[in-house]
Amino acid sequence: MLHHFLGIEVVPTPTGIFLTQRQYILHILESCKMHGAKEATTPMCTKSLLSLTDGTSPADATQYRRTLGLLQYLSFTQPDISFAVNRLSEFMHAPTETHWQGVKRILRYLKGTLDHGLFLRRSSPLTLSVFSNSDWGGVTDGGKSTTAYVLYLGGNIISWKSAKLNKKQCAGPLLKLNTRLLQMQVRKCYGYEICSPSWEFH
Q1: Element containing residue 194 per DSSP (H, E)
Q2: Strand pairing class (16-20; 118-121)
Q3: What percentage of residues in the chain have a pLDDT greater than 90?
Q4: DSSP per residue over 88-150, as a string?
Q5: 143 and 54 in one domain?
Q6: For residue 172, is pLDDT > 80?
Q7: Do 27 and 99 fall into the same domain?
Q8: Largest alpha-carbon pair distance within the chain?
Q9: Best CA proximity match to 46, nearest among 97, 91, 84, 93
Q10: What is the average per-residue pLDDT within 46-70?
Q11: Which of 111, 135, 168 is at the close of a domain?
Q12: Residue 153: which of 118, 178, 114 has the closest Cα?
């Protein structure tokens, strides 16, 4: 029975398997000296918008990039940090102290969610559900939007992504278009045209 794979812990249960990276999170917290930090309830602060030039002093770019690289791998089993990691990755070339505080916010959130992960059920209906959203111009530098989607097969999450739009455009029609393209891509890759599952869009 497989219990560990590339830093991911596999915990079998009677109804499925649970994927977690608890030890990996503890390693990140230890390397950043954040193991004693106060826990945060969310991975990102919603009151202030990040920008390229916020007036604060420069941060240690090497440490910033290294920590975000670790967090990007962690997002394989924790999609709840995907948006925050994606947003903070935009400032890797010249991070400031404000950006570094944003990274530390993710670490504080992870400290309080050590036991979170992905649960994959053994039996699940062949229903594909897609959830998508946008922050509607949340990028202060240029007014671009960040969109994201989460794809479920039955009750199991199988794909997710968060990305900034390349141009200023209305995110609503793009979300609808991207969802349809995603439907076509999944059917092409996994052969669901034969199974003909039902689709739910949210």
Answers
A1: helix 192-195
A2: antiparallel
A3: 38
A4: HGGGTTS-BHHHHHHHHHHHHHHHTTTT--EEEESS--SEEEEEEEE-SS--TTT---EEEEE
A5: no
A6: no
A7: yes
A8: 57
A9: 84
A10: 85
A11: 111
A12: 118
Domain membership of residue 19 as a residue range:
4-111
**Into how many domains does the chain fold?**
2
Least confident piece of the model among 103-112, 152-161, 163-172: 163-172
Same domain, 80 and 137: no
Domain boundary among 61, 82, 111: 111
Higher-confidence residue: 133 or 191?
Answer: 133
Distance, in Å, from the CA atom of 61 to the CA atom of 67, rounded to the nearest integer, reads 10
β-bridge pairing 118-121 and 156-164: unpaired
Under a CB-based contact definition with an 8 Å cutoff, are residues 145 and 165 in contact?
Answer: yes
In a domain, 116, yes or no: no
Listed residue (109, 94, 89, 137) closest to 39, CA to CA: 109
What amino acid is encoded at 94 in this protein? A
Are residue 11 and residue 47 in the same domain, yes or no?
yes
Q: Are 98 and 193 part of one and the same domain?
A: no
The more confident residue out of 67 and 123 is 67
- What are 4-26's pLDDT values in tens digits? 888 889 999 999 999 999 999 99
- Can you give the pTM of this predicted structure? 0.76
Count the Cβ atoms, other than its own, within 10 Å of residue 107.
23
On whether residue 117 sits in a domain, the answer given is no
Written as one string, the DSSP assignment of 24-86 is: HHHHHHHHTT-TTSPP-SSSS-SSS---S--SPPBP-HHHHHHHHHHHHHHTTT-GGGHHHHH
